[in-house]
Amino acid sequence: MVSHQRYWWICHGNRDWYAHPPLPWIAHCCSDPPLDRTLLVSKVDEMLDYRGRSFPLYSNRWKHNLVEAEGFQHLRGFRLEGSTPVWSYGFEDGLLEKRIWMQDGANTSYLQYKLVKGSAPVRLSAKVLINSRDYHGETQAGSVSFEVNAVPGGISILASNLAIPFYALSREMALSGQHDWYDSFYLSVEAYRGLPDVEANYYAGLAVVTLNVGQSAHLTFTTDSNPNLDGLSALGQRKDMDTRLLTQAYSFLENQSIDEIDSESWTEADIKAQLVLAADQFVVRRSSLVEP
């Protein structure tokens, strides 16, 4: 399946990133950018409850190559809003959009869920699965211990092998701490390379919200104890940055809205704009002895 072999890469200038499934990564932290990459948030398993039925948006591939919850069956489309990827999921007469972006220069990732259409409210529950390992490593159940505590707006998580905590926070979603290992995730690329191909992730939190049509909710993953939890303003800042980059690179795009860049019918200017935004993902801020 081709879709299982692709993912979307988002950086913020310090070489931390988010990568959408099939790779189970939400957030990495780099203590010495772009080196020392540590996986913090592995994935989020979302479930929709709508008009008496449940619709998974996630998929898991377990040991022995078993696939559970074929959430990709509900994927209706993908597009870009500047550098922000948008996935659309359909269920009965409903449509939900998922956006993911990072705050520039900060170890902060945002997920936005927006109910675009439907004839009833939808209940969204999201399981937060975490880890604490080197980018090239793997984790087995019990090899790391996690301390999960309630904080205003969500939960803090401290791994036994890290000096500082990280956080799962939200203004709109109710977050509760959980304490369980999910074992036997199958890593197909590692299997292909002849490396250890099974690992575990820790179920640390459950986020729940009910959305009406037009409403959105946000999940924030961060190492900052006091981040911006206004998801709409954070998304606006991301779009403003995209616009500044495009303005600097192409004066003829100065008055073009980010929302007008339609990935399904790109013009030559759209393609050039997307190349500018993609190139920026690989520009890394890194201090040196000359420029600390």
CATH architecture tag = Distorted Sandwich
Q: How many structural domains in the coordinates?
A: 1
Helix proportion of residues, in percent? 10-25%
Number of helices: 3
What composes the largest sheet?
8 strands, antiparallel
Strand order of the largest sheet: 8-9-10-11-18-15-14-13
Radius of gyration: 19 Å
The counted number of beta strands is 18
Order of helices and strands: EEEEEEEEEEEEEEEEHEEHH
Describe the structure.
The protein is mainly β and 292 residues long. The protein has a single domain, classed as Distorted Sandwich (Beta-galactosidase, Chain A, domain 5). The protein is 13% helix and 46% strand. A hairpin with a 3-residue loop joins strand 6 and strand 7. The chain starts with 8 loop residues before the first strand and ends in a 12-residue tail after the last helix.
Topology:
Elements: E1 9-11, E2 17-19, E3 27-32, E4 35-50, E5 53-56, E6 60-62, E7 66-68, E8 75-81, E9 84-91, E10 94-102, E11 108-117, E12 122-134, E13 146-151, E14 154-159, E15 166-169, E16 174-186, H1 188-193, E17 198-211, E18 216-222, H2 231-249, H3 268-280
Antiparallel strand pairs: 1-2, 3-4, 4-5, 4-12, 6-7, 8-9, 9-10, 10-11, 11-18, 12-17, 13-14, 14-15, 15-18, 16-17
